[in-house]
Specification:
Number of helices: 13
Radius of gyration: 25 Å
Number of domains: 4
Number of strands: 18
Length: 504
Amino acid sequence: MSITITPETIQQINADSEVEKAAQQLVKKRAFVNTGVSADGTWILADCKGSGKDPYRVSIDLMDSANPTLRCNCPSRKFPCKHSVGLFRLYQENSSIFGPREPDVDLIEKRNKKQFQDERKKGNFPAAKKVNRSAQDKKYLAQKEGLELLERLLCDLVASGQWYEASRIERMDRQSKQLNDMYLPGPMYLLRRLVLIGLNERMTQEEKMVRGADLIGQLWMTVQKGKEFLDDKTINQIEGDGASVENTPIGTSTEAQNESDAVIEDILGKIWQLNELKQKGYWKTNAQLLELAFERLDDEARSQRIEVSNLLDLDTGEIHQAITYRPFKGLNQIPEQISYMHPILVNETGLYPGFLNRRIRWDKGVETSLGDPSTFYSKAFQLAVDLKIAIEKYKTQLKHPLAPREAVLLVRCQRIGKLQDKNSDKSNDVIVIEDGTASQPIRLAMVDRTSDYSNVANLVRAVVMFPQEPIALMIRFVWQPLTNSIQGIPLAILTPNVHLRLGI
């Protein structure tokens, strides 16, 4: 479908001469590939070869043709960048090379966020609650002080080498309590995990060093990113320029920064309100969700029981998580997380910023049942990804220093069986899943989270029930730092006709 470029559209592409020149060079070098326009004529899309390993993803959103939104995932600080301007110029010069192409899910979500922000600016949504600036300033200053205190502790731990000595563990435990008083529950939980590793007598010295190094790295990056975020927030409030995240429209050059700041807020331990998530654009309408697995675990670092409903988004294939945190003290005072036996429809949900498995929330009782779950199994099965793609997604998440070290994905597999170690007895057989690659099959070892219940044994028993059917597994991917390997905890089996949970 052709797109009409109006004079107003051209006027909005306000690039400086240097960017224009670089953009024309990209067009001449034929740097753009996979060019396309959407069926509704509101997207121009392409990939652009650049200095990075992978091509940059470039798009122009023309939902409002007089005010186009240019996006590119390149690291350039200029807006618009040469890649997005180059794509615009290429379409002006030779639109015939653009075939049909639809935007990715993340682009649709970004458009929705921008539309929400635009509507809010028109007064169609309630304004954010008035912030007590004095109280907020005190909170930010306390958080900065806490992060600086944590920074000094980490420098001492790294300098000493033997971070798990008794005196240092005692200091970490003492400081973790201070972090909570300084409005930093997120870093507090990480530091407590480090304390528990140091106190674990079953771990070898090597395992303590490896796991401790990973946690110290996470804490260090939390400190650095947290300080940057708090410095920026404090400057914005002092100057009163309205440049804070809350007042900056999604879809501008600060879009990636908005998302990054929201993730930092979440990691520092921000308690989100539903209306706040919606006001920031972290929301989803008409969500169709199918629970494939439900998990319960006791988190000693948080002193909480965590209950997780792993929900497959039947529109996008993403795995969202409805989570309830129930403190050990007063466990009965917090209701259990609901487990949904039937697929549900939720008209409006808050979707937290984050990584592969974003937390999802909605007002209690607004969900409606979609009826017989078996009618959705075939559709859900089609949303499963190949094992190779799932591992690549998980590895991408692991590269982010602040990301969770686990992720849940729905994965297709061709074979499930045992690999026997020829040098050991049968008790050391490993259960693995395998993809359909003939020459070099990709395999993933299955493991249990605890020794008192075996999801893997349930998988072995259940797989014989489906000798001819294709199988997808919902798997919690976990990283083993000691061996630098990836393993999987099987949570559920899904076929086009059957859904079977493997845990309790």
